[in-house]
Every structure is written in C-alpha cells, then in structure tokens.
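User: What would this chain look like folded?
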Amino acid sequence: MITVEAAKSILKKHVRSLDVVQQPIEVAVGMVLSKDIRAAADMPRFDQSAVDGYAIVLDKSSKLVANRFKVLHEIKAGDAPLLRTQRNAAYRIFTGAPVPKGTFCIVMQEQVALDGGDIILSSDTIKHLRHIRLRGGNFRKGTVVLKKGVALTPAAIGLLAALGAVTVPVYRRPVIGLLVTGNELVQAGNLLRTGQIYESNSMSLRAALQSSGFSLSTIVRARDTANAVDRALGKLLAACDVVLVTGGISVGKYDFVHASLQKQRVRELFYKVAQKPGKPLFAGTRRKKLIFALPGNPAAVLVCYHEYVLPSLRQMVGKTPFIIKHLPMEHDFRWSGDRAQFFRANMGENSVNILAAQDSDNLLSFAEANALVYLSKGNHDLLKGDTVEVHPLSSGSF
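Assistant: Here's the prediction, encoded as structure tokens.
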C-alpha cells in the first residue's frame, strides 16, 4: 500500500500524451491545442468602420474647414475599398465596411443632421481615427493568438474561423471503456429482488466524464465469475485507450478483477492506496493503454475518479493540472485516522465547509459537494479559520 502522493507521482510519470490529429474546428471545442497557433493575417484585415455613419475626408492639412459635407458615395460591408476620394467630402458607411482612402474619422449617424444630399455636423464630433478599426489593431500576422495546451473554448473556435482555419492540430480524445462488475447490481427500470441494488456507478462516471469534456464509449457488464471478467476485460483492452473497472478489485472470494488484469498482461503501477475512501484502487498500463480498477462503493468511485482518473485523462490530452486551493475552515473539525482522507465539502469564495455523511456508500453529500478537503493521516484538531487543502471538483471542460 502506497501513499496518495506516491500514487499520483507514479501516474504522472507513466501517463503518455495521445496522438495529435487535425480536427475540423466545428467539432474541436474542448480539445487541446498541440502547438501554438499564429495569425495567418492581420486582424482586422483592413481599416474598417466600427459604426454606421459617415466617413469624413478632410483636406491635406487635416483641418475642418466647414461643418457641411456633401455625401458622395455609399460603402457597405463586403464592398471593395474606395481608393480615390474627394477632399472635404463625406461617404455613407456601414459597420464592418472598408474605410475609404484619406478618411480622417467616422461620425456616427446619430450625430449628424441631414440636409438633402449633405450632412451637417459640429466640430466636437471630429476626432482623428474615431470609430475606425485599424488594420492589425487586434493583432498582426504571425502573432501567437492561441498557445499550445489551451483548451478550445467557443470563442477560440470563433477566432480560428475568423482567421480562415478549417482544421486545427489537437490531441485526440481518448476512447474510454467501463467494466461494471457485481451480481447484486440491477439497472434502473428493472424490479429489484431482495439482496439486489440499483447500479449507479456507470451513470456517475458517464456524467463526470461528460462534464469534463470526455465521453464514455463503451459499457460492459460482467457477472462475478473469472471467465466473465476475463472476456469483458479483453474486449475493452482491445478497443480502448483507457479502461475503467468498478467493483471486484478487493480481496473477497468473488473479486476476480485483479487476477484478470494479471492474465491480460497489464503492468501494475500500484495497487491499494493509503486513503479513505478508495483504498483498493488499482492503476496499470498495457503499452500506451491506461487501466484503473476502482472500488465498488459509489462515493469511493467518484473520489478516485476526481483524484486519479481525471488528472490522468487531462494529462493525456495536454490539459493543465487542476489548481489546489488552501482555504480557511468555516467551522471546527476534529478527525483522526491512520489513512489520509478526502472529505466531501462545500467551497465558497473564501472558505470551506466539510459536509456530514462521509461514508463511502453514501452519495448524498457528494451530490451537495463542489470540492474535496484533503487531510493527511494522523490527528487533526481544526478550528474555525484554520487553513486546509481543498481540491475543487471539475465543473467544466475548459
């Protein structure tokens, strides 16, 4: 049995990045860039109007010699820019349209008076370059606009589209499979017999993966027999980058997962961690594949997912690690244990509250929690205001 810190260190050393693919940008949201993206052009690509109004072209000395200007031409978004203009004249222009040559500024349409084919304006509306988006004002060609390791948000996808990108280099998403073991487990919608319970771990893990930008590709269910577990594991290991198993990893008479992993030539990274909940956690590899055998108790499954599985998945696709916080307690708390413990908790902006109902089979407090408080083994006599280590639970894919 190893410590929490040792287990996480081992995983960090053995998790490998997945392949890089050119992904169409329309399906790349949440994926992680495998290299810096540089602008292929200036942005904006040309001087353009920021408003609907009138482009004012002054004489060569750039002096306002009158407050009445004749409107000579109309320029819409998408028109080619006017390369020849008349001095001391106005040009009707619309948002996004190219600014004509020699424009001193643009006056908003709300700030002019119309008089036939002329406009009348006051001198205080004339200010050099007002309401003009200059070419390259956002960034210049060759500028790094998105850095390697960035998860693509909707805004980043829009930026890529604005630059004319069709595909983007990203780490591919892992194919993740789940094996659920347990004779006592029944899927929701079926009748329970005495001694049976509804299976919830597959739903919890599916939802947890989805909320973090991943997806569960395959779920296989196996009875508690050596042959059934062997067949199910073999199927998943052949098809998946990451295999998760719930239940059957302890040392009971009907726990066949550990022996089956050995038969499947899975290299053990560690088995059993000095923590609560989730002591019988297994992690291993087979070539580039990653395997986690999680305990069967629902709260233990989610603790192990957030503390070990999710950080490994993020490492595989190039995402940065989660930030650990240190926050003061909202209340006194006394605890003593011979193993480290992850407590379900509610984290506020400036404090944290450890919840009741911490049993490994109880999802009630997990349903209310947004963080885990980590306490090392030993005696802890915490007072309100004492600082503790807080691990925020994932709430998004970016």
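The first strand starts at residue 20 and ends at 24. If you want, I can go into more detail on any region.
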